[in-house]
Design a protein that fits this description.
20 helices, two-stranded antiparallel sheet, 613 residues, 11 strands, alpha+beta, flat
Length: 613
């Protein structure tokens, strides 16, 4: 900004304008720093959206296959108190607070709002290389007028602000509208920014006086404006900067009060490079192979267009045309049959267009295309993920091995999605504790919110752990989960049959070590939050039984065994529910595989008909 412009504005406005201009310099530097990635991401997005003319869109196929494999089920929050026992006076309020928080989280995601945004985030990650989801706090705010008597008994009107229906909103951020400040780690970033396109009539939502103070006389009015929303961690503030003139149109102090300040968790990035925050577009890993696949398909299509059965004949062709157009079981008279017989018959009288060479080339092109596809599948792991890509000639054991290796291949990206959801749950929990009223919490959870629980929420509930129930975001391989559950139940039965005589001979004091040993074994399986709670209760009961008189020890041991039987019955019920849900989940996961099978079948039948195989 020139000295003349500095002199033409008041000191405060000039300072705002100067800070806004510096922010725009930082934003342009960040865009320049990621320029190569942004160009590659834009190119990949055009291919995925079929804007570019491609004959074989392998990127679309891969993304549509891998997204449901990474996230296909609503995440289940798991909130519980940590490092506290029942004899602690704070145990009751703390567990009640954790229960209220867990039910409130479930209410925030029970209408699939989170599913839609997470799926879009995963799609952005595997198309452009980065998937971002942000949280927002919203509520219904209005003013209510009440009439109450004053100290002299006279009615006085009072206007108060009423806040209702507090809620947390999840919103996927387009990769092109999100930038980061310089840094080697996400938690060390000094700032992040979001780009918004705002219509001129909506500029009233910003600070009108601040805009007017900075606006210069020669400002060019526009129908829409680009506004950058910048979250500055050092100042703990959010400022909105207009790109066209660098004016700060609004500033806010930390609006959410999150522990990490930023309203987004660590973005999902399929390809990471340690020490660098610039993403890598997954398509770049096999771009050259994808182009080769597209060229091969283009050649196949070109040859297929010219691969026609056609021929020529000499002399009067009227009878030959009638014969070519005749229906089945129809005899057509040929007037000049003697001339055809004299030249060796009808076969000798027609000259066919040669297509043998074209068929040979076409056969080799199909083989080359299959080899290129296989190379791409090996890079991306698609052949391991899609069970429908297995061959009918493979044994059941071979297909099972492929499924297991496919699970190992995608375990890391699945954990990235689970981590993003967990971080969103943590942010939502912080907003629930700091922004939601007791009445709203009671509506969401159905539990009484006591002043003691409100005090715990005001402290941030540091004694609770907010997590995602294991594998709740992926329900694809329920057959494997069912097998593991059956193995757990069978192993549990064998364990207690072997340990029961030992406990009977050694006395109830051995129940504690026995239950602790069983707990370490059981936690190797995915038994869910209910199973984890049952194990904790078993350990507590066993410890109590060891310190009781003999008669009481027997009662405590019997109670512990009864608790265990109830836990096993719950797991059996969970197994039955898995059987019921299996059909729907398999339909979602296997849909792509079925499409590939149908495509391969049609292609195979066509190739057989043309004599390729």
């Amino acid at each position: 900004m020139s000295d003349e412009q500095d002199d033409s504005l008041p000191n405060e406005a000039a300072d705002l304008k100067d800070r806004g201009s510096k922010w725009m310099e930082k934003i342009r530097a960040a865009l320049k720093r990621d320029e190569k990635w942004r160009k590659a991401a834009a190119d990949a997005e055009k291919i995925y959206e079929c804007e570019d003319d491609v004959d074989f869109n392998i990127l679309f196929s891969n993304v549509e296959t891998i997204v449901p494999s990474l996230y296909n089920s609503t995440a289940i929050p798991d909130v519980r108190a940590k490092n506290i026992k029942k004899d602690n006076p704070a145990y009751g309020p703390l567990t009640s607070a954790a229960k209220i928080l867990e039910r409130s989280l479930e209410a925030m995601v029970d209408d699939d709002v989170l599913d839609t945004e997470i799926e879009a985030s995963v799609q952005n990650a595997y198309v452009a290389g980065r998937g971002v989801v942000r949280v927002r706090f919203d509520a219904d705010v209005y003013e209510e007028t009440t009439v109450a008597p004053d100290d002299f008994g006279q009615p006085v009107e009072a206007v108060q602000t009423v806040v209702e229906n507090e809620r947390v909103i999840y919103e996927v951020v387009p990769w092109a509208d999100y930038i980061e400040g310089p840094g080697a780690r996400f938690d060390k970033l000094p700032w992040i920014a979001f780009r918004h396109t705002v219509q001129d009539e909506d500029m009233d939502d910003f600070d009108a006086e601040m805009i007017k103070a900075q606006q210069e006389a020669n400002f060019e009015q526009r129908d829409e404006h680009t506004i950058w929303e910048i979250w500055d961690k050092s100042r703990k503030s959010v400022c909105f900067v207009r790109e066209s003139d660098g004016s700060i149109v609004m500033e806010k102090e930390d609006p959410l009060g999150l522990s990490g300040f930023f309203p987004v968790p660590h973005p999902v990035e399929p390809i990471r490079v340690t020490g660098k925050r610039t993403p890598v577009v997954p398509y770049e890993a096999y771009r050259s192979l994808a182009k080769e696949l597209d060229r091969t398909t283009s050649r196949i299509n070109a040859i297929m267009k010219g691969l026609k059965v056609k021929g020529g004949f000499a002399g009067n062709g009227a009878d030959i045309e009638k014969l070519a157009d005749a229906d089945d079981n129809t005899l057509v008279p040929i007037e000049d049959a003697e001339s055809f017989l004299a030249t060796g018959g009808l076969e000798k009288g027609i000259v066919w267009w040669p297509i043998d060479k074209a068929i040979t080339v076409l056969r080799e092109l199909y083989v080359a295309r299959d080899q290129t596809k296989q190379a791409i599948y090996e890079i991306t792991g698609i052949s391991d993920i899609v069970r429908g890509a297995s061959k009918s000639s493979e044994t059941a054991t071979a297909q099972q091995i492929k499924t297991q290796w496919g699970s190992l291949r995608i375990k890391r990206p699945q954990s990235q999605i689970e981590r993003q959801v967990r971080d969103l749950f943590v942010m939502t929990s912080e907003l629930i504790m700091s922004q939601f009223s007791a009445q709203r919490l009671q509506e969401l959870s159905g539990e009484q919110v006591t002043p003691e629980i409100e005090a715990l929420f005001a402290q941030g509930l540091k004694q609770c752990r907010v997590d995602v129930e294991s594998d709740s975001t992926v329900r694809g391989d329920l057959t494997r989960q069912k097998g593991e559950m059956g193995q757990f139940l069978q192993s549990s039965s064998g364990f207690f049959q072997a340990m029961a005589p030992v406990v009977q001979q050694g006395g109830p004091q051995l129940a504690g070590p026995m239950i602790a040993l069983y707990s370490s074994f059981a936690r190797m399986f995915n038994i869910g939050s209910q199973g984890e709670d049952a194990l904790d209760q078993l350990i507590e009961l066993a410890e109590q039984a060891a310190n009781q008189p003999p008669d009481d020890q027997k009662k405590q041991l019997a109670q512990a065994m009864q608790q265990l039987e109830m836990a096993i019955k719950q797991l059996e019920a969970k197994e039955k529910q898995a059987d019921i849900a299996k059909t729907q989940s398999d339909m979602q996961i296997d849909q792509r595989g079925q499409q590939l099978k149908e495509a391969e079948f049609v292609s195979g039948e066509r190739d057989k008909a043309m004599g390729f195989y």
